[in-house]
Each structure stands twice: as C-alpha cells, then as structure tokens.
Specification:
The complex is a heterodimer of chains A (989) and B (90). Chain A is of the alpha+beta class. Chain A contains 24 helices and 50 strands. Chain B has 90 residues and is mainly beta. Chain B has one domain: 2-Layer Sandwich (Folate-binding fold). The chains are: A alpha+beta (989), B mainly beta (90).
Chain lengths: 989, 90
C-alpha cells in the first residue's frame, strides 16, 4: 500500500461505502473511484491489455491509461470505465479487469516474461498481420485460443441493460466546450449578452486545472474566483451548464455531440446541440515520459498526483520522486513537501532549469538532479525505488546510474493541447516547437480555440482569451458580451519544455500504456518499412485503445520521426475522429430499443388473426400472419395444408401491406403510360391491368395492378417492399420531370384494408357474403373492378389472381375491414374457407410462377422474367431507351425458370448456386441461382424459381442446385416457371 | 447535422429529408440516341465545391426541392423549388 487519505482537499465529510472485487471499502462524497481506491491503499487496479502487466492509477482525469475498471454488475455493468472519471456513489461495485485470479497475482502475466525473454514476443508490433500469414493450422490450434484467452479488457455484460437513456436535441447561440479557467471566463462573459449559452465539462467539478491548486488559506482568493465564477454561471438564466458531459464530436453545421452522465431514472443523456458559435476551451493534458517500466503502478502524471493531493486529499505515496522535462512538475514536488510528504528527488532532463525553481527546491530541501533521467522504475508490482542516471549532452547516452528511494514517481513529459474538437472542423494539426505539441489554428467566424487547447500557458492569458473570444462571437451575433473579473493571481503553466522523447537506456519503455505498445515496437515498425503515421498506428495498434492515443500520440510520432531522421513537423499527425472519448451505445439508442426500435405496423385485422392463433412474421414494416397452425402442426404442416386447401376449396389472406396510391387528374392516363412499360390510357373504366415499371437504366423496378375508377382516376397497387420508394418516385416524376402533367398522387395505403379470396369456391363465397354484387363471369370478368357497399362500408373488388386460382381482392375502408373480413369468413363457412398466411401466399405464387421481390432484385431485365412482350412499342416509357442494350438482351443471361427436385421430397435451398456438374468445385462455372422455393402439394414435390443462363432454351435438362456452405447438392429438373394453370384456365373460369 | 430551409416548412434538420440525385443533368429527348441516354444515366461530374442536388422532404411536406450544397464544406447556400435556380453571383 502506498496511497492514503491525507487531508480534506475540496471534498465533504460524508462517508460512502463501496466495494472493489467484493472487498468492502470506504470513500468520501466527491471522490472518484480512482481517488477512493488510492485512499484505500490499492496500488494494482488491473492488468494490461496484452501482457497482463500490473497497472494502477496514472492520472486524475480523462487521460487515464492504467485504472480501467468495470463499474456495476449484471446488466448495469460498464466495462473499461476510467476510474478517474467515475464519481464514487454509495454502494458502488467496482471490479478489476483482465486478471485471474486477482490483480495482484495474475496467471497470464507470463506473457510479459515471455516478451522479455523471446526475441519476438507473442504481441510484438504487427502481430495481427504476421500471425495471419503463418500456417493456418497454427492460427486455429495455438494463436487464436491463446490470444483470445490473453488479450482483452473488460467483459461486456451478458444481460440486457436495464437503464434508460435519452436523446436530447437542442439549440444555442454559443457553446463552450470545457469548463476550465478559459471556458468559465468565456461562458460568463457571453452570459451577460443575454444569448443562450451551453457549457460542457466532462468532470464532476468545474475549474479544469484550477482544481490542481491547493485549497488553503494562502490560495483562498484563487479558489474564491473559481467558486464565484461558477456561481454566477448557475445564477444566469441563459446558461445551461452540463457537467459530467463529454463533448465528443463536432459535425457539419456547428453541431456538437455529447454524452451526459446523470443520476436518477435516466443513466445518460445524449445531447445533439446545434450552436451558432463554438468556443473550444478543451484544455491540455499532461503526457508521460518514456522510460523503463513507466507503466508500473505508482508511476503517475505529475498533474494527476497533484490533483489527488490538493483536490481529493489523497497522498499518492509516502515518498515522492519527480521526473520532468519542463517547469510544471516542480509545483507537484512543492505541494507534496509543503503538505508534509517526503520528496526524495527531482530529476530534470534539462541542463538549466530556472533559478526560481531551483531556489524553490533548495528552500524546501529537495535534492535536484539536472541533466538527469529516470532510466527505470523498480519494484515487484508497484514502484519502490527508481534508477536514475546522468544524461549525456547529446542525449544519446546515460552514465552514473544510481538508485533513489520512493514509492510514487510523478512525471511530466510536457502538455498536449486537446485539439480533437478543433480538428473535427477539418483543419490539420500543426506542430508547435515552443510547446512541443500539435495545435489547430481554428479561429472564427464559427469557432474559437482558446486557452491551453490552443497551446497557451498561464492562467491570466487563458482567461483573457476566453473573454476575448466570447466578445468576438457575441458581436458577430449582434450582442455585447460583458467583462469578467480577472483571477487574483497568475498561475504558471507548462513552460520551458526541452523535449525528451525517450530515455536512452534498456528496458520496457511504454508509449501507449493502454494498448501495451512500447518504444521498441515503434522502432520495429519503422525497421519493417511502416514509415507513415497512419501505417505506424495500424501496425502497432498505437492509439487504438479507449484513450484514443491522447497520451501516446505525440511521443510515438517523435520517436518515429527520429527513426526517419525528419522533424516532427514533417512527420505530421493523423487527424482526429469522433468520438474522442469512449461513449455508451445506450445513449445513441435512446429509448428506441427493443420493441421501440422501429415502429410496427399492424393491419386492421390484427386482432382477428391473433384470435385465430396466427403466427406472425415481420414483412417490411408490417406484422403479417405467417401461418395459422392447427393443433400439433409444424410450420411445414400448416402451410402445406393451407396451400392444398386453397387449391381445392377457398382461402382468405390479409394483403393490406400492399402499397396503394391514388392517381387523379386529366393527365393521369398519360402519366401511367410514361411510368409503366405497358399501355394504361387504353384501359377501360372498371377494369384493372397488371403493370411493370423500369428504372431509367432499363432494369425492372416494381410491379403491381392498377385499376381505372374513372377517366381521370386510377388506383395503383405496389409491392409491399416498394410502397414507400414508388410513392417518392412518382412524386419526383411529377415535380421534376413532367411538371406540365396535371396529376396528383396520394398514398392511400392506410385508407384501405385488403384481403385476397382465392380458390375454386371463391366466387360462391363472395356471392354469399355480398348478395348485392353480381360475381358472374359476365358481370365481373377476369381483371374486372366493382365498387360496392356493405353495411355502410365502401368496398372496391378486383378480380385478379397471383395464385393460379380464381381469386378476388377485396379492399375495404380500414375502419370496416375486420367486419368485411368476418362477413367473408361467415359466408365462406358453407364453402369450407380457411385463412392462409404469408407462407401459403408465397407457395401459391411460386406454383403459378409469379415473380416478387425475391426475383425482382434490381438485377433482372424484362427478358429475364419473360415480360419483354409486355413492353409497348407505341409509346415512350421510363427505361425504354436503355432496356435493349446488348448486355441487357443477351440470350445467355440468367433467365427465370422453374426447378423441380428430381427426388420430390428433397428441398432446394433458396440461395443455392446452379451448376451443371454434381461434383462441381468452388471455382465451377456458375449457371445461375435459386431465388425462392416451396413444397408444392399440387405437384407433390419441392419446387423452386431461379435464374439460369440461357434458361429459356434449357427446359427438360437436369442440373444441380448446390449449397456449398451446408454441403448440400440437389439434382433438379429445369421446367417452365408456370407449374400451375399455365394457360390461365382457372383464373378466368 | 445539415439544416435545409424548405420553402414550404422552414428550416428543418436534414434527417427529415432524403437525398434524391444530381440536379444538374438534363434529361435527353425521348427519341435521343442510346449513347446520349447512357451518358445521362451513368456519368456524373462529381464536382468539388458548389453543387445542385434534389432532396425530398420525405418526412415533412413531401415536396421535391433543389438544394445548393458545397461538397467540400457541406454548407447549404440555397434551397428552391425544382425548377428554380440560385442567382449567379456576378
Ligand atoms: Zn417541406
């Protein structure tokens, strides 16, 4: 144990109970999980991603690389949470990750030892790519199982998340990203303009790096400035302050995306905020130095160790050592020693730190080692000492190694501005030598980067920049921002950096601590020829863990640039992509999960189907009866019975899901002539016609039946799947292509319930149901249309058939559709009527050889489905110009055929490939495919529809339907696609 | 998130709209040669910069609109009816 509760910090006194791996612990209100674990002396929090090395808390913020934990249990479990960002709550259950049986003793850590002994360890750079190139047998037997067992982070929960997530869409005049000193000042200045302001900060407490400052009497003025500024913001009615809210992406039109954690009924809110102006005050994070074992628990970023002490009241150890290449880490040493913690050494890689800092150390009795480095951290699991050495003037060698006692090492490799949000705007990050990091020059008129995010140092200048940006942004919006009181004291930032990209000494030097990538991996990837930044990242998987390379990016680029002998500016960096921090999927889903994932449409007859025991299936947006099982029936039993019954007696099927469009106007007939390949202007009132539409490129688009109700009024049906697209297409034609046509189209899909009545007894059934309608062949011939009324319900009756049986479609006003359905069922009892579902509908149309969406898949031409004769030669229509191109009419194209199993009880799988040879291998000449299949009770055989090369000429041949995935090959006979009623005797009878 | 100012409905989020197609093409005559139709159907200019497109206000008033969108910045500088055109800057 090394960390302990040492003071009050800014926390209250309330005690919170929590547990870590089941062990009860105590924390305080205001703690994060990380500070509470340190207060309980926990050093090893978990194990690393690949090598299972022990890892502990490394920071106090979003840059955390070590303390990744699972928060909560069961469905509420949130894996890979950064312990530094999770507020402690009463009763919270926290679990370590990636270790067995415990984080202190982990069996898999042998990986780390192997890595040290073998020249190329299991997970060295590029292991994914190399492993895949090795013999496949090894992959399955050894690599895959061992990688699966070894690599990984937290385990996703196996049960559904019981929590509620919300999505919130809002607007504001000004969004301020970040609630540090610059963001606070910007928001307060803008608040006085009266404009609507939203401020985001991912922490629980506002103030950014002000929270690193000690909260004591000597510093009271500064703390008061922070508290007053925050209070003023909350008091302003026009400012929305969102804490624990990570703003993770900036998108077109100044849209910001953010996830907010909240306590209560809802766990998280996903905010989409449309802002007129954005001020990016995202701050900077400290980055680590690269030296041996820099991943060891109790190696912490200096700013993180400082905030632990000053904000959370946690001493991270009993004896601190500091390693830095810039000024900022000195303050950590000063604060620790001033708080009564021993500081054993301050190791500065620079030759000449400022006299002021050296005086500060001297007055406190801190021994300073300049032009020196830490070569490695030592200790079995956590730091117990460090080895330091002098650094040669050229930076290439070390000498005079010596040992220094400490149980926590605070280090600082400089500060990295958080440029991700600025970079999302499209501008590339540019290397700034002065701060040895990348910045994005993203200023006005819509966004302003200010403060540490723009590479600035010092409290006063950051505050001033925030106010300046607020004034500029408000002025562009026609308002005046107000003044903000300056903080009472200056606070120096990260100044005077002399880069030290890696320590020239042996040992495991970690660059990306989260993803277990070492400096040696970066060098190796260069040696293997991966010279661009993008390749480096792919090959080493650097920056691909949950911190997205926040801490590792700059160090890795610098090491790579050195290998290549170029400057960091020349090497450049990759651009940043959203999300910049891990965010939950729950937020994206909002409340649209489970049954609310998408709307379900039900037909008017839904309740009737339920009462009849129907099994439902989702077809398009609709729930449709799939079949109506009787006692003990399987799905196959049921549809075979229903299919046979329709052919022998009569059946009724709900076809409400068809698209229905009314087309009205003096030019309606002309309009239909243009969109359909066949003629509709010649259609007589009271008749229906089957029609086919093409796309502009000549491919079949959709089919359906259109009836003429009056000279200027038509009623179109579309397939279920194309109901929406066809409607939009017709609107487009009228508004864009042919505005001269006087036609209106309106969707009436919901206006009408629809049912098909099919079978030899269909006419008798309907005659009994609706005695006022004359169903005789003379009065109501095939393709006839009749308007009728029954008990006050309007109906349209169409005599059309897709089953090869005499059939009628009955359209009834939706509110009366169930009554009409019931009337037909009642009248049909005498004729033995049964309801039938989608399976039987499909079986009947396959037997008849009628195509649907499975055949009209966006690849077939008219000729492919034997409809070329339908295309009118007397008029122009959409698709006419390109439908006869050479490739579209080639005789060797796959054409629609029927297929019949040679052994009638052997099914033919949909999706099978048609081949000539039973033993055809994968590379065989594919002759076509199977698009739909069914068992045909009428033929006593499995049958299918499919497309076969030159199929028109191949009737009678025997070929094979192969399904290699399942190892099935079925011998089939090629037949006409019209298995049943090829001459339309039945449908016209 | 783009916002499109529908002449009928006002400014709405782009998720209410569906993209239609390039609005700079001229439909050939019905009896134009196949080559001309082939060019019309398959060839696109794909400019980097200002571009005219058709969008459908599918979840709004269902009007088809012409939209001037910058393909580099996604800025929408003009929205009109299908047979209107933005004023050319002189
Ligand atoms: Zn509209």
């Amino acid at each position: 144990m090394s960390g302990f509760r040492h003071g009050q910090g800014r926390l209250g006194d309330a005690t919170l109970h929590f547990s870590f791996d089941g062990k009860p612990m105590l924390g305080r209100a205001g703690d994060t999980v990380a500070s509470a674990l340190l207060a309980n002396g926990v050093e090893v929090v978990g194990r690393s991603f690949k090598y299972h090395r022990p890892r502990g808390v490394t920071s106090s913020g979003p840059e955390e690389t070590g303390a990744l934990v699972t928060i909560g249990a069961g469905g509420k479990a949130d894996p890979n949470a950064r312990a530094t960002m999770e507020p402690l709550t009463q009763g919270l259950e926290v679990f370590s990750q990636n270790c067995f049986p415990s984080p202190k003793f982990d069996l898999m850590s042998i990986n780390g030892l192997a890595g040290a002994v073998l020249p190329g360890s299991l997970f060295s750079a590029g292991f994914y790519y190399k492993t895949f190139m090795w013999p496949a047998a090894l992959w399955y037997k050894f690599y895959e199982p061992s990688i699966r067992a070894a690599a990984g982070m937290g385990t996703p929960p196996k049960v559904a998340d019981p929590d509620i997530y919300d999505r919130i869409q809002s607007f504001c005049d000004l969004a301020v990203v970040g609630g540090g000193c610059a963001g606070l000042a910007a928001a307060l200045s803008a608040a006085q303009s009266g404009l609507r302001v939203v401020m985001f900060d991912e922490h629980n407490d506002l103030g950014g790096q002000l929270l690193n400052e000690v909260n004591n009497q000597a510093n009271a003025d500064l703390e008061q400035w922070r508290v007053n500024t925050i209070a003023a913001l909350y008091a302003a009615g026009n400012v929305k302050v969102l804490t624990r809210t990570v703003c993770w992406g900036r998108f077109d039109g100044n849209t910001l995306a953010a996830h907010q954690s909240v306590d209560g009924k809802v766990r998280q809110n996903y905010h989409k905020v449309q802002a007129k102006k954005i001020i990016i005050a995202a701050g900077a994070i400290e980055r680590p130095l690269v030296f041996g074992n820099n991943d060891k628990p109790n190696v912490m970023l200096a700013s993180g160790a400082r905030r632990m002490l000053n904000h959370y009241g946690i001493a991270t150890g009993k004896m601190l050592a500091v390693f830095t290449n810039n000024d900022s880490a000195y303050q950590t040493a000063f604060d620790y020693i001033d708080a009564g913690i021993k500081v054993s050494a301050l190791v500065d890689s620079r030759q000449y730190p400022s006299q002021e800092l050296l005086d500060g150390c001297a007055s406190r009795g801190i021994s300073v080692h300049t032009q020196a480095v830490v070569t490695q951290a030592k200790g079995w699991q956590a730091v117990r000492s460090i080895e330091i050495a002098d650094l040669a003037a050229n930076g290439e060698r070390v000498s005079n190694r010596r040992r220094v006692e400490c149980d926590v090492l605070a280090h600082s490799g400089g500060w990295t501005p958080q440029v991700q949000m600025a970079s999302h705007g499209g501008k590339p990050p540019i290397y700034d030598k002065k701060i040895a990091a990348f910045i994005v020059d993203d200023q006005a008129p819509d966004t302003y980067s200010v403060g540490a995010a723009e590479g600035e140092n010092g409290l006063l200048v950051c505050v001033a920049q925030g106010v300046e940006a607020a004034k500029a942004a408000c002025a562009l919006l026609g308002k005046e921002a107000g003044p903000v009181a300056l903080p009472p004291q200056e606070r120096a930032g990260a100044t005077n950096i002399v880069p030290l990209w890696s320590v020239p000494a042996k040992g495991k030097q970690w660059v990306d601590i989260q993803h277990d990538v070492t400096a040696a991996d970066v060098v190796q990837s260069h040696q293997e020829g991966f010279v661009s930044v993008e390749h480096l990242k792919r090959y080493t998987t650097l920056g691909m863990a949950n911190d997205q390379g926040r801490t590792s990016n700059v160090n890795a680029l610098a090491i790579m640039a050195k290998c290549r002998g170029i400057s960091i500016a020349q090497a450049g960096t990759t651009r940043f992509r959203a999300p910049i921090a891990p965010v939950s999927m729950g937020g994206f889903g909002g409340r649209e999960v489970g049954q609310y994932f998408k709307p379900v449409r039900r037909t008017p007859m839904q309740e009737w189907h339920e009462n009849a025991g129907a099994v439902f299936v989702q077809a398009g947006m609709y729930m449709r009866p799939q079949y109506y099982p009787q006692a003990g029936e399987t799905i196959d039993d049921a549809y075979e019975r229903e299919t046979a019954h329709v052919r022998q007696k009569v059946g009724i099927c709900d076809v409400t899901s068809l698209g229905k469009i009314e087309i009205v106007g003096p030019d309606a007939a002309e309009f239909l002539d243009r969109v359909y390949i066949n003629m509709f202007s010649t259609l007589k009132v009271g008749k229906a016609r089957y029609g086919v539409m093409l796309r502009e490129d000549g491919i079949v688009y959709d089919d359906g039946t259109t009836s003429r109700f009056a000279d200027d009024r038509f009623f179109m049906t579309t397939t279920t799947a194309k109901a929406g697209p066809v409607m939009a297409y017709l609107e487009r034609c009228l508004e864009i292509d042919w505005p001269e046509l006087k036609v209106r189209v309106s969707s009436v899909s919901e206006r009408w319930g629809a049912m098909a009545v099919a079978g030899p007894n269909a006419r008798a059934t309907l005659t009994a149901a609706f005695p006022s309608v004359d169903f005789s062949n003379e009065a109501f011939p095939f393709m006839g249309v009749v308007h009728a009324e029954h008990n006050g319900a309007k109906m349209v009756l169409l005599r059309i058939s897709f089953s090869g049986e005499m059939a009628f479609e009955v359209y009834a006003e939706s509110e009366h559709a169930t009554d009409i359905w019931q009337t037909i069922i009642d009248a049909g009892k005498a004729y033995d009527i049964v309801p039938y579902g989608l399976e039987t509908l499909g079986a009947l149309r396959i037997e008849k050889g009628h195509v649907t969406g499975a055949e009209l898949d966006g690849r077939v031409t008219l000729g492919d489905v034997h409809m070329d004769g339908m295309a009118s030669k007397k008029k122009w229509f959409v698709g006419k110009n390109l439908k006869d191109r050479e490739g579209m009419v080639h005789p060797d194209r796959p054409q629609l055929v029927g297929l019949k199993s040679v052994d009638p009880r052997t099914p033919i799988s949909t999706g099978s490939i048609l081949v000539n040879d039973a033993n055809a291998s994968a590379g065989a000449d594919k002759q076509g495919w199977v698009s739909s299949m069914t068992y045909s009770p009428e033929l006593g055989s499995f049958i299918a529809l499919g497309f076969l090369r030159g199929g028109k000429e191949r009737i009678g041949q025997r070929i094979y339907a192969a399904y290699p995935v399942k190892g099935i090959t079925v011998e089939v006979e090629v037949v006409s696609n019209h298995f049943v009623d090829p001459t339309n005797e039945r449908v016209k009878g | 998130m783009l916002r499109i100012n529908c002449p009928y409905c006002g400014e709405r989020e782009h998720s209410e709209f569906t993209y239609g197609e390039d609005a700079t093409r001229t439909t050939p005559d019905n009896d134009a040669p196949m080559e001309q139709w082939n060019t019309f159907v398959y060839e696109r200019i794909n400019p980097a910069g200002e571009h005219l497109e058709y969008w459908h206000h599918a979840f709004g008033c269902r009007a088809w609109l012409k939209v001037q969108r910058n393909t580099l910045t996604h800025d929408i500088s003009w929205v009109g009816l299908p047979h209107e055109n933005p004023q050319v800057q002189s």
